[in-house]
Amino acid sequence: MRHENVYSAKNVISLVVVFCVIFWLIYSIGSFLHESRKISTEIEEIRKTNTEIEALIEDKKKEQAYLKTQERIEKEAKMQMGKKLPGEQVLVFIEEKLELLPSEERRIRPQKRLNQMPNWKKWYWVFWGNGV
């Protein structure tokens, strides 16, 4: 029986080749798993975006349906063009700007001045009076 050397060149080369093949297989499986996880994440993001877009489309459809209703058309005609339905009465409110009497102005003027003061001056005024 012949004793072969375990560390012969042929055995070392065989082990290196087997090690390289196993390393390559492990690397390939790892990169495949990484890519599949990345693709799964992208698919989830696309599904989420798709759901959001579907909700927007549904909102736009509802808005478009409202824009076509007779109620909305009448409202726009009344508000923007001043139209009215037969038999309706239109009330117009006019704002009046009232002027203050001199006695009221004297009472309100310090409050306006106080509102325009910086915060530190207001506190000074509270504790020590009208000194600043």
Q: Could you give a quick summary of the protein structure above?
A:
The protein has 2 domains: 1-90; 95-132, no CATH class. The chain is 73% helix and 0% strand. The protein has helices at residues 9-67, 70-81, 102-116, 119-128.
Can you put this structure into words, describing what you see?
With 132 residues, the protein is mainly alpha-helical. It has 2 domains: 1-90; 95-132, no CATH class. The protein contains 4 helices and no strands. The protein has helices at residues 9-67, 70-81, 102-116, 119-128. The longest helix has 59 residues, at 9-67. It is elongated and about 120 Å long.
Outline the fold blueprint.
Blueprint lengths: L8 H59 L2 H12 L20 H15 L2 H10 L4
